[in-house]
Amino acid sequence: MTVFFDSMAERWLAWVVPASWQIAILVAVVALIVRLARRASPRIRYTLWLLVLVKVFLPPSLTIGWGVGSWGLSPLWSKIQPVTQPLWNTGTVSTSKENPLSNLANDDPQSTAVVPAFKTSDHLQPATLLFFAWSLAGLLFFLLVLLRYQKLKQSLNHMQLVDEGPLRIRLEQIAIELGETHLPELYLSDEASSPFLFGLSQPRIVLPRQLAESLVPGNLESVLQHELYHWRCRDPWVGWVQVFAQGLFWFHPLVWLANTRLRHERECVCDEAVLRTGKCEPARYGEALLAVLSAARGRSPVQGSLVGVFEPGANIQTRLEEIMSYEPGKRPFGLPAYFSLAIFAVLFLPMALPKVSAKTETIVTKEGLAEEPQVRVWPWIAKTVPAVGATDVDPELKEISVTFNRDMQRGMSWTGNKKTFMPLIPKGVDAQWSDTRTCVLPVKLAKGQYYRVGINATSFHNFKSAEGDSAPCSVIYFTTRGASKSMQRRVRVPKLVQLTPENGAADAKPTALALRATFNMPMGAGMSWTGGGDRFPTITPGKKPKWTGGGKTCVLPVALEPGRDYQLGLNSHSHINFQSKWGVPLEPVAYRFQTADVAK
């Protein structure tokens, strides 16, 4: 059970961490722009804060070539990111002090690498505890919001419905002027301290009874206009989206700030909409706001999906300054504004770093085999000369070259020896880097031969990126022109034809004494059963893995238990000893099965 929660916590962290820092950057950028554009239309400022709300629900992995992640964050990240260590490191890194630019090491593919299993703790990991804390606090937040919402719905039973009379007639007239056909219901309340709009599919405008009786007709019409504009813009829906965003990021102070500013700008937008009708002078509208504020005594019940004349975070002084300085035509919101906001959204919403070309591998960690293939960002081979698996290479070729997809350090680990079909190296000529990505190995080839050269090995991995990431263990293998058909068949990649128990089996026999991997061709004597944690099968004490069936079947002695989920692998990023007898490695395979609860 702890493994399940640990897996959930890892996925949660993979979402919440990048999402949190991306939201923080966007909030900072929007806050700066809003400050600079404080004299622009509040609709521009409101839309910018709406983009922050949109960002909350976008996947943090979203990226495009022209987004800020590519041209802004990626260069910065490349300078501050920590050096990634190899996944497994069971050998000694060779620094080759005699010749730092080359490391021609003996890499015997016939070696055995059974990666030992690491015992995992039965206790929950720190990330899992954080996941529980986040979940419980979020549930408590939503529960409190729903309780308050339900309490407010019940209070409607004690409010007076206004379905006729001058106040209702004026509300209908204003709605017709705004072109709103779905008219909210109107209620008078003895408990409400400020007007507000409530409900999604069945909207209700709630007015404090004292305010409705004390305001002069012109000021009351301004209040009704304000609330109808809230409904016309479907602000209650936006309010609920804000609640959901706040529940997900209850721990993020900048999300709280963004929601506060969003509510303030929403009120400013409605203020401007009322003034834009030209039926209410700024001074009279400001007087109406002050009257509402006086009646509410500075308090507002507005929360969640409620929107009103005063919302939490709405700065009355700033609003009054904007109202009194309002001049028709001075705050345009036309096509240039729409275009600018669209450009900003395209640039700043997809904030993830660009995806670096990477190899996909089922990662084995101390906690066991990963549930799904993951991506490790390491330097990988973009091109080799000759091509891997080529069967018609010119024997006059004087050098083998490997080109990586990233800038590399100046070290290298060309591996192999005569037993592994390594080509001859001319005396007095050293391997060297022709540029920051391409390394060249001088060779002397013969006609009609098979050759194999290793790139890095378990104990030798000096092919590293400029950031210090080791390149995966790889092999360049080929035959020269004139090779026989049987010689050319050496470049075939070995394939698994059978696993016992079967890969993905749900009812494997717990009485089985060994795991068996059968290949489609004779294999070398080496092997790389990889894995770790309590999901790696226990190797039978005193027994060793062996090859049978003419070198086609590898047997791993194990002691299985009933009702267990086992995970391991054949070959990995740094262990590729499952190879054909000609040194061609097997592509890494993730192996998983479950034993039956009862022995059959």
Characteristic terms for this protein:
600 residues, alpha+beta, Immunoglobulin-like, five-stranded mixed β-sheet, five-stranded antiparallel β-sheet, 35% helix
What report would you give on this structure?
With 600 residues, the chain is of the alpha+beta class. Among the domains are: 377-491, Sandwich (Immunoglobulin-like), CATH 2.60.40.1220; 496-594, Immunoglobulin-like, CATH 2.60.40. It has 13 helices and 24 strands. The chain has helices at residues 2-36, 42-57, 68-80, 126-155, 166-178, 209-214, 217-232, 235-248, 253-276, 282-296, 316-324, 335-348, 485-488, and strands spanning 160-161, 185-189, 196-198, 204-208, 307-308, 359-361, 364-365, 368-369, 374-376, 381-385, 399-404, 414-415, 432-433, 438-442, 450-455, 474-479, 496-500, 514-519, 529-530, 538-539, 546-548, 553-559, 565-570, 589-594. β13 (432-433) and β14 (438-442) form a beta hairpin.
Give the overall average pLDDT.
81
CATH architectural group of the domain at 377-491: Sandwich
Q: Rounded to an integer, what's the Rg over CA atoms?
A: 35 Å
Low-confidence region ranges: 81-123, 298-305, 356-375
Tell me the β content: 15-25%
- Within the CATH hierarchy, at the fold level, what is the topology of the domain at 377-491? Immunoglobulin-like
